[in-house]
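lol ok so funny story. i was supposed to be doing the assay writeup but got distracted and ended up predicting the structure for this chain instead. priorities right. anyway since i did it might as well share w the group, maybe its usefull for someone
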Amino acid sequence: MMLTVSQAVKNGLLRDGVTPYSNVDPILAAEKVMQGSFIFPYVGELDVSKNNEINWQPVFEDNRASKELWFYSFVFLDYLIKAYVITSHDSFWEKAVEFYYSYQNWKTATAESNVKLFNDEHAVTNRSLVFSQFLHVATKKSDARLYEQLGNDLKNHADWLMLDENYVYNNHGVMMDRALLNAYTQLRELSNSMIINVSPSKLWLEKALFRLNMMIEKTFDSKGCCTENSPSYHMLNLSLFGAIDSFLRKNNIENASFNSKLKLALDAANFMIHEDGTLPLIGDSENKASVYVPDSLHKGKYGVGFFPESGFSIVKEKDFFLTFKCGGSSFSHRHIDDTSITLRVGGLDFICDGGMYNYDNSNELRKYFVSYRAHSGFFSEQASAIRFKDFKSAREMAKTTNLISDKSFISIEGENYYSENCKFKRRINIEKIDNEKVSSILIFDSFKSSENDNWKVQFLLHPDVSIKKSDTGFVLKRNSISLFLGFCSNSKFAVNIEPAHFSESYLVCKKTSIIVVSGRTCSLGITSLISVL
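and the output, tada:
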């Protein structure tokens, strides 16, 4: 009976914690590689062969950054190594070795190879993990030349990862330090056992621990909410730091404990996840987490989560889920979304944010999804010209100012500073029937300025929501659940249903609709009513 990857790790045939991807079956992908077809995480199949050999400098026309990231991560080597260990078929191993020496020849012969290889810290991190797995398996074979070369490659990558000039102060940096710790412990074991003549530097360990203790404080605010503006990245960082904590314990490496901060982050995660395990599409989020999320983390966990430092306010009830995003301390994975809401009723999304689509900021759809146009908030049209670089710090963009909560009533307040003339303020009142079921949501939006400003109140709808106009507003229906949405204001306004886009997973884009209430004035007060019918 064929082993599974997890069984191979448990038996020591594969090294634990060094798989740099999550959404590709390595065995199936390895079989594709043997047929000349290369499948990559997230970006799918890419044409990277030339004359039946790998083209080490492929040219990608679109989504170039993501495609180059995964190509230069060398995940196809990892597929082949895992397939060899699982199946014991030598052909997988022979192909991996063939590709590795092809890479070595290209690296030696091509002047710009170093630029391609060390252009993206994420790719360098991933590639170091692939080399680590390759080395782990190679040392069980009698090819000293191969594993000495792999050991030197791993050392060179670790030296690069250690340099602060290459470091990125977000989850990529955490992944860099995790890879650095892995390289240190692996080369320490192998050199101490005199299996290879490549020794690690103690500086790798010291640098990784120093940065990780800094990064856990930077990554999670004082209440445990991730500062990277996205439920997806909350889950990823929680998983990363949890794995690093386990790794340090397993390898008897002393370190200041992550426990207190991880406990807060676990508690905050309760609010980030819908009852069914999906995620709201805030910031660079997809509806499914990229890491394993146990049911115990989110099922039956209700209440109000208030994280003003990171700009998140969340109301989670059995059949009701509302988020309010306003403010934050970081630009990482942030969108122009301050004052935006998402709303789920009866386990179904009604009002959403648009999602992320991809990470290629030159892509027109990506630009749309990051912009205010793909969010359900209150905005000045000046938001179309907003650039993160225009702000000295992320905190200057917006803030959540207050939250009041009791059994029958919840009120949340925040404001964005996208207009040069004034603050755009939003207050959300949530009222309950008999202290239990939410009956209505009142959203009060306002500003006062010495100059006229073009303003918009937006509600981006899930693609499965139907819209029916009534005399006083709109009826939003999805399956058997209906909501009423209506407006009143002290100023003239227009209401339009406009085409929009929705992306709940990477590179998937669906058509949907957005209800846009708009006008032009120097002083505004407008109320939006949402009630469950």
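Residues 180 and 509 are 36 Å apart (CA to CA). The mean pLDDT is 92.
back to the writeup now i swear
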